[in-house]
UniProtKB/TrEMBL annotation:
Classification lineage: Eukaryota, Viridiplantae, Streptophyta, Embryophyta, Marchantiophyta
Main enzyme class: transferase
Gene3D superfamilies: Hect, E3 ligase catalytic domain, Hect, E3 ligase catalytic domains
InterPro entries, per database record: E3A/B/C-like, HECT_dom, Hect_E3_ubiquitin_ligase
Protein's UniProt name: HECT-type E3 ubiquitin transferase
Amino acid sequence: MDFFSGDPSSRRKVDLGGRSNKERDREKLLVEARLEREQRKLVRLHNQSAAQIQKCFRGRKVVAVARPAIRSEFCSQFGEFGEKADSTVFRSSSKYFPQLFFFFNEKDAGDCQRLVQACRLLQQSLRETGDVVALFTENDQIDGPLVIYRVKRLARICLQTLHVHRNSLKAELLQPVQAFNSLTNSATLLLDTVLTLTGDNFPWSEVVLKYLHEYKLFYLLRSIFLMVEPEEKPTKMTCIESAVLVFASRHVRSLRSDTSKLTKGSFSTDILSIPLVWKRFPIFKQECIKEKVWAHSVHQIAASLSELLSILPPDTCPGFPSSVCLLGNLLEIAAAAMRGPDCELKLASDFALVTRYLMERLPASFYKFVKALDEGYEDEMDVDGFGKVTMPEPELKEQLKYAEDYELLKTLVRVTCSSSATSTTEAPSSTEAAAVGAVCAFLYATFTVLPSNLVMTGLAYRAELVPQLWQYIKRCHLAHSWPSLELVGDASDSQVPADLLGWMLPLAVFCPVFSYLLTTIDNEEFYEQQRPLSLEDLVQLVTILKEALWQLLWVMSAKPPSIVSNQRLGQTLQNRMFSSKAIRDRVADVSASLLAALHDRNSRRQFSPPQHFHAREAVDENFFAQAEGENTRAQYLLRKAPFLVPFTDRVRIYTSQLTAARQHSTHQTPFPRLRVRIRRDRIIEDAFAQLNPLAEEALRGTIRVTFVNELGVEEAGVDGGGIFKDFMENITKAAFDIQYGLFKETSDHLLYPNPASNMVHDDHLHYFEFLGKILGKAMFEGILVDIPFATFFLSKLRNKHNFLHDLPSLDPELYRSLLFLKHYSGDLSQLGLFFVIENNEYGEQMEIELLKDGKDMPVTNKNKINYIHLVANHRLNTQIRQQSSYFLRGFQQLIKMEWINMFNEQELQILISGSQEGMDVNDLRSNVHYAGGYSETHPVIEMFWDVVKTLDMDLQQKFLKFVTGCSRGPLLGFKYLEPRFCIQRAAPEDASEETLDRLPTSATCMNLLKLPPYRSKETIQEKLLYAITAGAGFDLS
C-alpha cells in the first residue's frame, strides 16, 4: 500500500481554467515574441538617435572648424572688422552678410565689432541715399525672401549682442536719446539698426517685428532694463527707454486691436512687470501715457486674464513677485493715464478688471489681515502652499497704495457712474453694468487688501461715490432689474452666482462708504441740506437694505459663519476675497451696519415710520423657536440686523432669554438665598459693602432684603420678591441722583457719568462697577427702574463709539458752536483757537491737549474738521472712558452683550425704564384675577377702576409700586406680569364701619391688592390715595 511520502513534486498539476499544456505553451510563446519585437524596436530607436546625435555633432564640429576659415575669408575681403565694405554688401549677390551670419559669435569681441561696423555701414548708407529699398535692390530687382531672411537675422543678432553685453554697454545705453545720431556709440548703433529694420519706412517692418516678438524681443529688453538701472534720476529720455517705447508703440500698431490675445514675452507682461519700473525710468512713464501704450496694455491683459499668470516672466527675486510688480506698475500710472474728460468707459472697466484679478491673487504676506489670521498657527506654517512666506519689499507695498490715490478713485467713479447721473428710470445697459461691477469689484478688493481709512476718505469726499453709485442702485431698484455680473478670469465653483453678484457687489462698496460718511455728517447736513441723499431716497434705501438682509440672513439657507478651523492659512486666503461665503458675509455686515446707522438717526428724528425698517410685520413661531436655540439662522439675523424684526418681537425674545438665564441660575448656583440687611438712610453704602464683593454666580441668584428704618427697627414684611423690587428702585434712585456725585445730567435732565467723579469719591471707579451690577441685576430680574440715561452713555453699554452727531445729547450749545466752525467761510486762524480744550470741574480749570503739542497748533481752515471731531471725541468718549469701562464691567457680569445688542439706544432705555406713555389701565384690567368674592362686575371693582382711570401718571406709577413693588409695568404689557395681578376682598360684604375704615394693603411679592368692600367711590379714592402716597415702606403690608 502506497502512503503519502511528503514530496509535493509528485502531485499532478491541474489547470482550473481547463487549459491544456499546449495552450499554455502557445500563450507563453506569443508573450516572448512580443517582448523580443519591442526590444528590437527599442534598439533601432537607440541607433537612429545615436546617428542623429552624431550627425548633429559632426555638423557642429565641421561648422566650428569652418568658422575661422570663413572669418578669415571675410576679413581678407572686407577688412579685419569690415571697414572695406561699402553699400553694395546689402545686395543679394554679396557674401558679406551670409559669411557674417555663419561665423558670428556674440561672445567674441571681434565679431561684435564686425557687427557694429555692419550697423554703422547701414546707417551711413541710409543717410547718403535715404532710400531703404534701394540698398537691397540689384539690377532693379529684389529677392524678397532672401532680403527678409537677412534683415530678420541681422535684427536678431543685434538684440542678442545687446543682451549679452548689457552690463558693459550700460553707460552707452543710458545716454540721452540724441546719442542715436552718433556713429561711434556701439550700443546705440545696434539699437538704431533694429529700430530701422522695424521702422514704418521699411517695407518688411511688420514681418521683422513679428519675428522679433516671437524671438522674445521684450524678454531680452526686460533683461537689459533690469541691468541698466540709472544711478541718478535722469532728466532726459535715455536711448534704451526710447527704443523700448518705440518697439512697444510699433507692436501696438501692428496688432490693430485693443483686444488682441496676450502672448508670452509681450510688452504688457515682460516690461510692465519689471520691479518699480517707473521709479527706474520716470520719463519712460510719461511717454507710455502719451503714446497710449499703457492703455493698450490694460486692454490686452483684460482680454487674456485667464492665461495671465502662466505667461508672466519668472520673479526677479523673492521679494518682487512678477504679478505684484505688474499690479504696482499699473496702479502707479493709472491716475495720470486716465486723467481728463476723455477717459473711456472701457479703459476704466478693463483697468478695474485687471487690478481686481491681480489683487485677488496677491501672496498672503501682502494682505492687511494676515497677522490676525496667522495667530494661533505655528511659525513654520506654509502660508502660500509653497513654503514659508517671503515678506514683500517695502517699496513694493508702498506702490500698491496707489490704489488709494484720490484722483484715481475720483476718475473711476466719474467715468463708470456718468450714465446713471443722466438717466433715472431706465435699467442700466449690460455695458454700464459690467463697468460698474468691475469698478465695485476693484474697490471691494482694495478694502480687503489695504487699510481702508484712506480709501474710504477718498471715495466719500473726493470721489463722492455715495450719490453717484446710489443713482445706479436706484435705477436697478425702480426697474426691478439687477443685472447679472460675472468675475472675469474666475472659474471657481465657490464663486457667487452672477444674478446675486449683480446686487451684492454694488452694496458691498456703497454701504461701508455711506456708513463712514455718516460718522462725520451733522444733523443739519442730514436733515435740512439732505446730503448726500434726499430723505425720499433714504426711504428707498431702507427698503433695499432690509430686503437684501432678509434674503442674505434668513431666506438663503446658509449656516451661520463659523470660526476658521485649523486649516492651511494659504488655502484660507487664496479663495477668501470673492468666495460665496466671504462676499455674502461682507455684504451682510456692511448692509447691517448702514441700516443700523440709519435706524439710529431715525430713532432720534424720524425721516421714515419706524415700522418701515421691519422686513416683516411680525415673525412666525419658527423664528421664535430658532431664536431660543444656539447657532441658528434666527440668532445670526438678530446679531447682524435685529431691526428687521419688530421691537415687540425682539422684546419677547429678550424676555425669554432672561427667563431661561434665571432658571439656569436657580438650578445651577450652589449658593443659598442671600439675605442682606439694609438701612434706608444708608442704602448705597450698605448695599455696596454687602453686594459688591459677590461673585457673578451669587449676583445672579436670589437676594432677599430686610429694611431697617430711621429708628433702627426692621420693617414689617417678608421679602418674597416685592421688598427686593422696592430696594432696587430706591437704590437706583439714590445712587444715580446727581447730588450723590457719580453722575451728572444734561440740559434735558439725562444722566451720564461725572467726568470729575474722582474729586467726589476716592473709590469712584469701584462704585461705578457696583452701579453697573445694580443696573444689570434690575434688568436680569425684569425690574424696570426710572433712570433716564443720556443717549451717548447708553452707546457705551453697547460698546459703541460716539461721533459728532451724538454731541447734542450731551451739550447742544457746544454742538452748535462746532457746526459754526465747520461752516465758517472766513479765516479760522484769526479766531485764536488751538488744539486744546478746557475742563472746568468744581471750580478747578484744566487745559487738555487734543493732540501732542496741541497748545502750539492753531486751528485753520485746513485742519478744522479734525479739530471738530477731536473735541466731540473728547467730550463723548475720552473724558468718561474710565467710568464707562468700569460701569460696563459690572453690567456685563449679569447682562450678556448679545441680549442688548438687539436694541438701539432709545430701545435700550425702554428696556431699563419702560415706556414713558404711562400705565395702560385697560391692559391691566383685562389681565387681572379676582379673589375673595370679587368679580369683574362687582360694584366695588367697577368703582375701583373708575378711580384708577382718574389718576395722573405720577399717581399711577405710585399705585403700581404699591401693588407690585415697581413703578412701571412689564415691557410687553400686564399679560406678562408674574404672578398675575390679583384684587382680593379684604373683608366680608357686611363688614362694620370700623372694619371698612382700614386702608388697602398689598403683597408685592404676589402682586396682590387687598381691597376692603368700600361703600362709595369717594371712600375708595380717599383710602387708595392715602395708601399709595404714605411712603410708609412695608409697614402697611
